[in-house]
Amino acid sequence: MSNRYIGLAKEELLKGLREAERAVQTFKEHIAAIEAVERRSVGNLEHLPPIRENEFKGNRAVKALDSYLRGRRGFRIPLSRVVADLVEGAADPGAPRGNKKDPAELIDHTLKLSLGNLPRLLDYEPKMHYKTTRGRDRTKVRPDTPSEDILVWLADTADEPKRRQRPKK
Fold first, then answer.
1. What are the tens digits of pLDDT across the range 5-36?
2. What does the alpha-carbon distance between residue 124 and residue 118 come to, in Å, rounded to a whole number?
3. Which residue of 33, 80, 86, 169 has the lowest C-beta tally within 10 Å?
4. Phi, psi at residue 60, to the nearest 5°?
5. How far apart are CA 110 and CA 115, in angstroms?
């Protein structure tokens, strides 16, 4: 076998390897898309208690979320469904901010910011971990995560009483 044939055979093998790597990447993307659909379809959402008219009237978004989740224990609910139910239940979205004037957008924005600040009350996924300046490990929602992909549920510690803070002397 001459060097020419060896070179051609090597080129063909490398070409096949590149095609196989592209196929593996495509398969990984398809699997990620399927897993995203699985996360969104948490099942049994048709068994959620219905929202009553004006159920959350006068409550701000975070307080309404607390009431909403306490009435629906054991369910992992997509944030988009929570927002729609809070709007339907007449939760107070707060004052318009920037370009956001739609009540659903305001509540969605408020809840995304609040999820990481309420670890004793609720749990959610997916989480983004980060370290504070004091070295504590915290979590928050990635800003680019769509509301359909965020699942929210009542934390196990939600019913535990808060620790009493003694005033400093």
1. 888 888 999 999 999 999 999 889 888 877 76
2. 10
3. 169
4. -70, 170
5. 9
Distances from the Cα of 155 to the Cα of 27, 70, 76, 158, angstroms: 35, 10, 11, 5
CB atoms within 10 A of CB 5: 9
Class of residue 139 by CB neighbours under 10 A (exposed 0-12, middle 13-18, buried 19+): middle
Residue 106 burial (CB count, 10 A): 21
Q: CA-CA distance, 72 to 70, in Å (whole number)?
A: 5
Two tokens, residue 34: 């399927």
Whether the CB-CB separation of 138 and 130 falls below 8 Å is answered with yes
Q: Is the CB of residue 27 less than 8 Å from the CB of residue 63?
A: no
β-partners of residue 104 are none
